[in-house]
Amino acid sequence: MTETALDTAHAAMEAAGDDAARLRFFERMADAELLLLLREEPQGEDITPQIFETGEGTFALVFDREDRLSEFVGAEAAHAALAGRTLIAMLSGQGIGLGLNLGVAPSSILIPAEAVDWLAGTLAEAPREIEARPTEFAAPGALPQALIEALDAKLPSAMGLARFAYLASATYEDGARGHILAFIDAAPGAEPALARAAGEALIFSGLEAGEMDVAFFAASDPLSAKLARVALRFDLPQPPELVKPQAPGSDPERPPRLK
User: Fold this and answer.
1) Does residue 116 sit in the same domain as residue 140?
2) 51-60, 82-91, 148-157: lowest mean pLDDT where?
3) What does the alpha-carbon distance between residue 258 and residue 107 come to, in Å, rounded to a whole number?
């Protein structure tokens, strides 16, 4: 059976047993589409999770494939497909943990409520806004491989939100220096989501006290031409077409209501 991204991340976490691998697993879970087991079919925008009380706490059950959910239940069952980050935000502060793929996949794991709350807080952190404008760019230099890998893994989730991104060292008008991730030709209104994705890549890379500025330029901006000569480029995937989501929870701006 085909291994999923969560299976791979879970195996890496089990093998490494360190904080960096755990962070990468949590990031993959936040980025994944998860199927939440429900007590009944969704009622409009209202959903009622199936809650399980155990000796280790209270848990809602999620799966990363429909066949895994059916295997656990033994039949088809009511469920809602939600972005992992949406589900985590909804459960935060309610004392409910997550049981992922329990007994039906290599990534079977219980995530306690405290970890759900921590992850929700981490995902809610907003990037720092700055007013300074860069004047010169240079190659990004000896960046930690963990950050490059984190960006490689994170930026594909920003499909269609920009054409590509440049990573470079930057010198600002006030003489300050640092690293910058510049998104080129961002879609209208996509800037907050792109900045959040860049911030999460930095956080989940496991780098302590790491900083990276985020900027947005049009391809016609002279600064884009400067970046093209020296920067490391990340191409973002482009969707073949835009389809309006219909399933409850598929629109992050209108999450379903838990009953």
Assistant:
1) no
2) 148-157
3) 26
d(CA 100, CA 94): 18
87 three-state secondary structure: helix
Cα–Cα distance list, 171 to 168, 193, 258 (Å): 10, 25, 48
Which CATH number does the domain housing residue 33 bear? 3.40.1350.90
SS3 110: strand
Q: Quickly list DSSP for 7-64.
A: HHHHHHHHHH-SHHHHHHHHHHHHHSEEEEEBSS--BTTEE-B-EEEETTEEEEEEES
Pairing of strands 177-184, 213-217: parallel
Q: Can you read off the two tokens belonging to residue 136?
A: 């010169």
Q: 152 and 185: one domain?
A: yes
pLDDT for position 242? 47
Residue 21 in any domain: the answer is: yes
Q: What is the pLDDT of residues 92-132, one digit of tens each?
A: 999 999 999 999 999 999 999 999 999 999 888 766 666 77
Residue 170: give the domain boundaries.
Answer: 134-235
259 occurs within a structural domain: no
The whole-model pTM stands at 0.72
Q: Which of 80, 103, 124 is the last residue of a domain?
A: 124
Q: What is the residue whose two structure tokens read 């759900």?
A: 116
**Mean of per-residue pLDDT scores for the chain:** 87
- Residue 214 forms beta bridges with which residues? 181
Q: Which of 90, 106, 124 is the last residue of a domain?
A: 124
Does the residue 32 lie in any domain?
Answer: yes
Q: Enter the tokens of residue 56.
A: 């280790």
Whether residue 140 sits in one domain with residue 63: no
Q: Residue 205 has what pLDDT?
A: 80
